């Protein structure tokens, strides 16, 4: 397994977009627009690969010089519960620290809150709706 930063609009980026569609978007009948994907050009994209196959991915948005927002986190359904998510969490925290960030935040789907708590994230505020699904804001100090 290899976890790496991938360039926007690269071959690997498009593999990750297809995985995000499959895992995060199709189940709630959403599709990415060209504009949404174009606007991801200033984000940091991370993919987890087994050979050429993407098995997980996420992106970072720079909130400020101290905080990153992790978004669009997913692992392929046939690879879940195999430690890939945990490896991506470890990678995200190491990369953030190495690049001068001290906090990571995310908007976690309600169904994923326990997973993030297991990795040291704390909830902040009340449930809110995002893409028609209940979410909680979560943060972790590194």
Can you offer a commentary on this structure?
By secondary structure, this protein is α+β, with helices and mostly antiparallel strands. The chain has helices spanning 11-25, 34-38, 84-98, 113-118, and strands at 2-6, 44-50, 53-62, 67-75, 103-109, 122-130, 133-141. It has one domain: Gcn5-related N-acetyltransferase (GNAT) (Aminopeptidase), CATH 3.40.630. Strands 1-2-3-4-5-7-6 form a seven-stranded mixed beta sheet, sandwiched between helices. A hairpin with a 4-residue loop joins strand 3 and strand 4 (67-75). It is globular, with a radius of gyration of 14 Å. The two termini are 24 Å apart. The model has no long low-confidence stretch (mean pLDDT 96).
Short description:
This protein has 142 residues and is an alpha+beta fold. It has 4 helices and 7 strands.
The overall number of domains is 1
Strand count, sense and barrel status of the largest sheet are: 7 strands, mixed
Q: How are helices and strands ordered from N to C?
A: EHHEEEHEHEE
Question: Percent of residues in helical segments?
Answer: 25-40%
Q: How would you describe this structure in keywords?
A:
142 residues, single chain, Aminopeptidase, alpha+beta, seven-stranded mixed beta sheet
């Amino acid at each position: 397994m290899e976890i790496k930063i991938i360039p926007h609009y690269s071959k690997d980026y498009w593999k990750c977009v297809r995985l995000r569609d499959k895992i995060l978007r199709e189940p709630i009948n959403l599709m990415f627009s060209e504009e949404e994907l174009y606007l991801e050009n200033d984000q940091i994209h991370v993919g987890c690969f087994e050979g050429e196959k993407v098995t997980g991915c996420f992106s970072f948005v720079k909130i400020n010089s101290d905080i990153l927002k992790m978004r669009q986190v997913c692992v392929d359904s046939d690879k879940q519960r195999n430690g890939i998510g945990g490896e991506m969490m470890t990678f995200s925290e190491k990369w953030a620290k190495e690049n001068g960030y001290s906090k990571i935040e995310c908007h976690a789907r309600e169904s994923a809150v326990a997973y993030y708590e297991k990795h040291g994230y704390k909830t902040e505020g009340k449930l809110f709706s995002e893409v028609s699904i209940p979410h909680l804001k979560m943060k972790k100090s590194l």
